[in-house]
Design brief:
Blueprint (H helix, E strand, L loop, with lengths): L1 E9 L6 H10 L3 E10 L10 E3 L2 H13 L8 E4 L5 H17 L4 E4 L4 E2 L3 E2 L5 H12 L2 E2 L3 H8 L6 H12 L5 E7 L8 E8 L2 E8 L8 H16 L2 H22 L11 H4 L8 E2 L1
Parallel strand pairs: 1-2, 1-4, 4-5, 5-8, 8-9
Antiparallel strand pairs: 2-3, 6-7, 9-10, 10-11, 11-12
Length: 282
């Protein structure tokens, strides 16, 4: 399996491609990473060095890969944080080129827009680009609950609300949806839910809530869900595998008191998770 992963990147720590690439590689996937930004560290530290690339820079790298004659062997494209609509257009152009050569290729879009408590934290125009262009082009999307609310235009206070919002988003184009960090009325205070929807069916995994705040977990679970979905063709299977791996990764991180997720130290969790959870159809 060959995946073109177009995301941000940091030299220190694990967000964007620095969080998504290695888990996919650990699962035996050949990853072709293209960085939309190259920073010293994630912006949550308050200061960083580096630069943001533009759309033509992304397209130039895709051109170079195409010149190697391997683009038709690409099985999927994964995208995350988009610094500008210019970069977003370059990503969608790459998706179109891959699909032209391999119609079976999948596009997984992690529609990074914002989060509960923080609100929208991307540049103006990006939320609309995600909703109107990126999400309709995607086969799979992995929003958090805040992003699901925005994309669907619906509230998600209950499980029924979440299911209706997922169905509304699927009407835009994606066939499989993974919603992360769900806290509905039915979710116990000491737990967190992940909900996947496909073909009119919905599944839930409930995991213990961990006392930590780190960046990059969403990038990791998007990558893991994508790979397991591409291999199994099942949103339920992908939900089971991705949730188990990320919970193990975050539990190890919390136990270590680390500000950065332990992508390398806890790498066995990607292949053989130490905790597994019931996948319940809801």
């Amino acid at each position: 399996m060959n995946v073109l992963s177009i995301q941000s990147h940091v030299a220190y720590g694990h967000v964007g491609n620095a969080s998504a690439v290695f888990p996919m590689q650990r699962l035996g996937v050949e990853v072709w990473p293209i960085h939309t930004v190259q920073f010293s560290n994630h912006t949550g530290y308050g200061s960083w060095k580096g630069r943001v690339f533009d759309g033509p820079a992304i397209e130039e790298l895709v051109d170079g890969i195409a010149e190697r004659g391997v683009l038709e062997r690409c099985n999927g494209v994964l995208s995350g944080y988009m610094g500008s609509a210019d970069i977003g257009n370059a990503i969608l152009s790459a998706v179109a080129r891959v699909r032209e050569l391999n119609p079976e290729a999948l596009y997984c879009c992690d529609p990074v827009i914002g989060d509960v408590g923080r609100g929208i934290f991307v540049r103006p125009g990006i939320p609309e680009f995600m909703r109107d262009q990126a999400v309709p082009a995607a086969d799979i999307i992995t929003p958090n609950q805040f992003e699901l609310n925005y994309l669907s235009g619906l509230p998600t206070e209950t499980l029924r609300d979440v299911k209706q919002a997922v169905s509304a988003v699927q009407q835009l184009g994606p066939r499989a949806v993974l919603v992360t960090s769900v806290e509905a009325q039915e979710t116990p205070a000491d737990s967190i839910d992940l909900i996947a929807g496909e073909g009119g069916r919905f599944w839930r995994v409930r995991t213990p809530k961990l006392a930590l705040s780190v960046n990059g977990a969403g990038d990791a679970i998007a990558a893991l869900f994508f790979v397991h979905y591409a291999r199994s063709g099942s949103a339920a299977t992908a939900l089971a595998e991705a949730s188990a791996s990320v919970y193990g990764l975050l539990k190890r991180t919390a136990e270590a008191g680390s500000r950065e997720i332990l992508t390398i130290a806890a790498q066995d969790e990607f292949v053989s998770p130490t905790h597994r959870f019931i996948v319940e159809e809801v």
